[in-house]
């Protein structure tokens, strides 16, 4: 979303197959990514929710592709100093709806989930005042195998974030 030169630019995608640089006989599959410029103006207090604006097509080790559901969201609660980021990612593979959710620790503008029993995710905030966020996610051992994807979010301020 946005233009490459803008501070809140986010791009995402996936590689279906590739090879290791050091071992070209070992394929790499289902690699999802998010790119952008992490914010240098991260808020220090407040609470905000983020709505899904896009993402890669989720993949599974069973060879299937799924759908990233619009019910996916992210929250940033800077009043919670322990784990201020919460993500809830919902994907659909046929009749199987799979959720990846949990809390994450924040380091600068980057975050990484901690001890999630329901999958894992990591990402960063971008743009002035953390306007957008992007992350990659996964969950192992589901009904469709290991699930991977990437997602991008736009801020909906609930209690204004501030520096």
Quickly list its features.
163 residues; mainly beta; Porin; two-stranded antiparallel ribbon; 62% strand
Largest sheet: 8 strands, antiparallel, barrel
Helix/strand order = EEEEEEEEEEEE
User: Briefly, what CATH class?
Assistant: Mainly Beta
Mean pLDDT: 88
Domain module count: 1
- Give me the count of strands: 12
Shape: globular
Low-confidence segments: none
Task: Provide a compact summary of the structure.
The chain has 163 residues and is an all-beta fold. It contains no helices and twelve strands.
What would you say this structure looks like, in words?
The protein has one domain (10-156): Beta Barrel (Porin), CATH 2.40.160. The chain has 163 residues and is mostly beta strands. It is 0% helix and 62% strand. The strands form 2 sheets. An 8-stranded antiparallel beta barrel has the order 3-6-7-8-9-10-11-12. It has strands at 10-19, 27-36, 45-55, 59-60, 67-68, 73-77, 85-93, 96-107, 110-113, 120-126, 132-142, 145-162.
Topology:
Layout: E1 10-19, E2 27-36, E3 45-55, E4 59-60, E5 67-68, E6 73-77, E7 85-93, E8 96-107, E9 110-113, E10 120-126, E11 132-142, E12 145-162
Antiparallel strand pairs: 1-2, 3-6, 3-12, 4-12, 5-7, 6-7, 7-8, 8-9, 9-10, 10-11, 11-12
């Amino acid at each position: 979303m946005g233009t490459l030169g803008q501070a809140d630019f986010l791009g995402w995608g996936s590689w279906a197959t590739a090879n290791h640089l050091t071992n070209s006989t070992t394929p790499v599959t289902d690699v999802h990514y998010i790119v952008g410029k992490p914010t240098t103006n991260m808020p220090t207090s407040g609470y905000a929710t983020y709505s899904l604006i896009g993402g890669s097509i989720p993949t599974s080790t069973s060879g299937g592709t799924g759908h990233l559901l619009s019910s996916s969201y992210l929250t940033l609660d800077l009043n919670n100093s322990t784990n201020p980021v919460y993500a809830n990612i919902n994907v659909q593979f046929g009749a199987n709806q799979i959720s990846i959710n949990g809390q994450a620790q924040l380091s600068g503008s980057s975050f990484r989930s901690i001890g999630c029993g329901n999958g894992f995710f990591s990402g960063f905030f971008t743009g002035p005042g953390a306007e957008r966020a992007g992350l990659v996610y996964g969950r192992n051992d589901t009904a469709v195998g290991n699930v991977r994807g990437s997602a991008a979010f736009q801020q909906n301020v609930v209690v204004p974030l501030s520096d």
